[in-house]
Specification:
The chain has helices spanning 36-39, 43-49, 74-91, 98-105, 110-129, 160-175, and strands spanning 5-9, 16-21, 26-33, 54-61, 63-68, 134-142, 145-152, 181-184. The strands form two sheets. It has a five-stranded antiparallel beta sheet. Strands 6-7-8 form a three-stranded mixed beta sheet, with helices on one face. It has 199 residues and is of the alpha+beta class. A hairpin with a 1-residue loop joins strand 4 (54-61) and strand 5 (63-68).
Length: 199
C-alpha cells in the first residue's frame, strides 16, 4: 500500500503542523489527545507521544494535526511523525481504539460548547479580526456541530476561509475538542461594510 503524507506547518500557530494522509487514519472525529494518559490504548497516538516534543494530537479522518512544545523544531519532528503514521497504517492495527474514541469525543453539552467558544472568540479572535473591520460570531451549536458567521470586513473577504480553517478552527479544536464540525453559515455574497470596530 502506497501512503503519501503532506506536512504543512500552520502559518498562524507555529506550534501546530497538519499532516494530510492519502488514506483514512481513523474515520470520523475529531479525536483530541492532550496527554500520553489520554492516548493510552490508542496505538498511533501512544507512538506519537513517544516522540520527544509532541504535546497534542488531533485526528480527523485522513488528517493528523500535531502540536509541539516551543523548544522543538518541526524539522526535527516531521520525519518521525510521518514515519509513525505510515508504520501504523501499514500494520493494519486500528490507530484509535473505538472505546477510547467514544471517551475522547464525549464531554461538554451544546450550551457549554457555545459559552466556551463565545469566550474564546471575544478574548482571542475578534480583537485581531477587528483590525480588519470584521467579527466572528456563534450562530448555533447543534449536536456538537458549531455554526459560525462572519460579519463586517470578514463577510465576503477572499481570505475568510483561510482565517476560518487555519485560525479559528485550530483554536476552537484545541480549546473545545468536543466540536465535531465547524460550519460557516455566512452569506459571503452580501458582505459590504464592517460594523465591528476595535474600541
Amino acid at each position: 500500500m502506497a501512503i503519501t503524507i503532506r506536512a504543512e506547518p500552520s502559518q498562524l500557530d507555529s506550534a501546530l503542523c497538519k499532516f494530510t494522509v492519502s488514506h483514512t487514519v481513523h474515520p470520523g472525529g475529531p479525536f483530541f489527545f492532550d496527554s500520553p494518559q489520554r492516548a493510552a490504548g490508542s496505538p498511533l497516538i501512544e507512538r506519537l507521544f513517544q516522540i520527544p516534543g509532541i504535546a497534542t494530537v488531533l485526528v480527523s479522518d485522513n488528517i493528523v494535526t500535531v502540536g509541539k512544545n516551543s523548544e522543538t523544531s518541526w524539522l526535527q519532528l516531521m520525519k518521525p511523525v510521518g514515519g509513525a503514521i505510515r508504520e501504523q497504517l501499514l500494520s493494519g492495527v486500528p490507530t484509535i481504539l473505538e472505546r477510547r474514541a467514544s471517551e475522547v469525543s464525549g464531554g461538554r453539552s451544546d450550551p457549554e460548547i457555545r459559552r466556551v467558544v463565545e469566550e474564546l472568540l471575544e478574548r482571542e479572535v475578534n480583537p485581531s479580526v477587528a483590525s480588519h473591520g470584521g467579527k466572528i460570531s456563534v450562530v448555533d451549536v447543534k449536536d456538537a456541530t458549531l455554526y459560525i458567521a462572519m460579519s463586517g470586513g470578514c463577510q465576503g473577504c477572499a481570505a475568510s476561509q483561510v482565517t476560518l480553517k487555519q485560525g479559528v478552527e485550530v483554536m476552537v479544536r484545541r480549546v473545545v475538542p468536543e466540536v465535531r464540525a465547524i460550519i460557516d453559515a455566512t452569506d459571503h455574497a452580501a458582505g459590504t461594510s464592517p460594523y465591528y470596530n476595535r474600541e
